[in-house]
Amino acid sequence: MQIADIPHNEQARLASLLGMHLLDTPDEEMFDRVTRVAYALFQVPMAVVSLVDANRQWFKSCIGLPTRETARDVSFCSHAILGDDLFLVPDALADGRFADNPLVTEPPHVRFYAGYPVRNGEGYTIGTLCILDSQPRQLTGAQIQLLRDLGSWVETALTSRQLSMAQSQLLQELDVVKQQGRVDPLLRIWNRDGIGQIFEKELVRARQAKAKLGLLRLAVDQYKPLASQDAEAANGLLLEVVKRLRRLLPEGSGFGRLEGDELLVVLPAMAGEAVLGFCDGLAGGLAKGGVLALPGAGAAVAATLSIGAVSVDTCRYREAFEGSDMLTASGQALLMARSMGGGGIEVMHFDSV
Predict the structure, then answer these.
(1) Does residue 164 contact residue 205 with C-beta atoms inside 8 Å?
(2) Is 271 exposed, middle or buried, given 0-12, 13-18 or 19+ CB atoms closer than 10 A?
(3) All domains in the chain, ordered by first residue
(4) Is the distance from CB of 57 to CB of 72 less than 8 angstroms?
(5) Global pTM?
(6) What count of other Cβ atoms lies within 10 Å of the Cβ of residue 40?
(7) Structural contact between residues 272 and 323, judged by C-beta atoms closer than 8 angstroms
(8) More confident residue, 107 or 229
(9) Which residues are registered as beta bridge partners of 112?
(10) What is the average pLDDT value for the chain, to the nearest integer?
(11) CA–CA dist 193, 14 (Å, integer)
(12) Could you tell me the sign of the dihedral formed by the alpha carbons of 226, 231, 236, 242, in that order?
């Protein structure tokens, strides 16, 4: 097995990558769109946006692989970032550099690899968009150009990526180990601690700016009945719902898991009737996507949401309150929404003068 050379600008490249606060963060729709298109367009079993860290490659977006990172020494992407154009391996078993690579000889048994090196706004090659197959393949000239185009799409996403101020601040405060501890391992969104910190930071920001803030507590109505029969299928349902919801949330919103099937959405600069309208759109968007196939369960579910929402207009609401008051109110609103028998929406407003 041939280990890739280290790029000549490695220290500056790594510093630029770390400064982007991308590693070990929740999934983001802007990157998942690209891997979904690559997966469908090339009809491959694996499509990945990979970031090459000091000793590992970490997958910012991933379809078809059971893990979110591998050692850098065995990665194909560590070879791809050394060049300026597509790195292509038609048959890894016939390539002396990779024939005895554990990613080839063991699962996922990579035989075909094509990776486009992607650069960030500072011009450093920080990773790749790559497609992989367990069978040898060739790409036509037109397909190579399509993969280049998709790689350029990833580069555009990198430069236009916008996090809320609260999320950016949280990522700047945490080292990699702590970041990993704030992400739900199943759903790839913020966990209870992570979303709680984002909410508190957004509330402070809203008070300082005399701005609006919306808080949604969501529950998947079918989760608990399904969990009583098949916990794995229930988790599969929740995962599919979260994937669909992430496509419907605006950039800058916070999204996390409180516990079980309860999810929390933080909506900066939104309050009043806009929150109710957004809840309607969220529930309708989930339904519009149709039934959700449950991985490995051989079944499909028409998922619905119960939504308890709270909004505050800090310019109008002058009474003293804490973040815990809003969280408690969102829980009460969710209970009322659930009492409607599924698909209910209940909104409370902190907006009196």
Answers:
(1) no
(2) buried
(3) 10-159 (3.30.450.40), 166-350 (3.30.70.270)
(4) yes
(5) 0.76
(6) 11
(7) no
(8) 107
(9) 133
(10) 89
(11) 28
(12) positive
